[in-house]
Design goal:
2 helices; alpha+beta; 34% helix; globular; two-stranded parallel sheet
């Protein structure tokens, strides 16, 4: 997925939805600590997936 603008929580959630589309098993992502990825909207979306999406964050110093 590409975007011409900034990656906001809304754009990131759209990306996550595309990853989950037709996924037969849980999807795991390893991410940096950018504030968009840790936003309330993203956390709520992840909770709404019922365990189909797992996010793991790298330590801040990495």
């Amino acid at each position: 997925m590409t975007t011409d603008g900034n990656v906001t929580a809304t754009v990131f959630i759209e990306f996550l939805k595309r990853l989950l589309y037709k996924a037969n098993q849980p999807v795991s992502l390893i991410l940096d600590n950018h504030s968009v990825r840790r936003s309330t909207e993203v956390r709520e979306f992840v909770k709404s997936t019922g365990g189909r999406l797992l996010l793991f964050f790298l330590p801040p110093y990495s």
